[in-house]
TrEMBL record:
This is Dipeptide epimerase. Residues 139-235 form the Mandelate racemase/muconate lactonizing enzyme C-terminal domain. It comes from Oceanispirochaeta crateris. The active site is at K160, K263. Pfam families: MR_MLE_C (PF13378), MR_MLE_N (PF02746). Its cofactor is Mg(2+).
Amino acid sequence: MKIDSVEVYKLDMDLVEPYEVAYSRFEKAENILIRVSSGILDGWGCAAPDPHVTGEYADVIFKKAQEEIPFLMNKDPFRRAVLVNDLKKRTPGLFSLWAALDMALWDLIGKKADLPVWKILGGYRKRIKTSITVGICGIEETMEKAQEFIDSGFSILKIKGGQDVQLDIERISFIRRKFDSRIQIRFDANQGYSIEETKEFMEKSAPLDIELLEQPTNKARPEDLGVVSKNSSMPIMADESLVSLLDAFHLVKRGLIDLMNIKIMKVGGLSEAIQIDAVARAAGVEVMVGCMDESAIGIAAGLHFALSRKNIRYADLDGHIGLISDPAKDCVILDKGWLYPSSLPGFGWKGL
């Protein structure tokens, strides 16, 4: 089996509703699609760069993909590790581009085997419940969005904050009072807090039954996560502080965190994510699979990863919800907050 065709596409998708997090406002998703073909089979991958998380820009990824992806011609797609490693040497630091190629090769391998990737990787579960994100906004809008999501069948809300501790607590308090124990609440400060603000948030929000606190402090100082997690009853999750296998090793070796958020785009591919999960599992640290704003083909890769591994307890795979004109929307099935894979082989998308 040889790769006989490669293509790169730019995919810009507006958001139905723009949203805000501690460090930025998002109005559209800029993705790059990669198609790797062998005969009648096509493998599809997606890059979703984010300058705040992966340090990449979409125009750079698109240009480098066009320049470098042709090296795959006449190569054996089953030698995935070699091909991804070769791309890493050609494109240092471009994590989401590595992820796109790794994804495309897994998709092609799954289609050749006529099996979904989640079964090839282990097939631990058939579905997983995802959270849905409420961006930074006022109390009234927060409540409207929470009601809308709960009416749609979601039972886990991920509240974004990190700009104002008191407002963050008030928003969560209003949600908890209205919906009581019917829902789970996760909070993501996106690096917005200092150590002191984090401690204040944890102390004042203790009665609100928050399931976890994600990346409260700046990623440049991972030791701050250890300070706030020490003697805290609220589990602390690393997100932006975790972008590599080495990061995972240092975070767990030093006992800085309770949980990890692994994003395929952030760590450079599904294969790298599997290795990071192994480090987490060895340390007794459970994992969330997260995402960027990305086409459903990218979300599908995260979903197949989440379905395949026992140690993955949480999913935050809502980055495709609210994207306008996503061509891959059917490869992920959403039903009342539960995510299911397509029944088709690979990641379940036939392509453009």
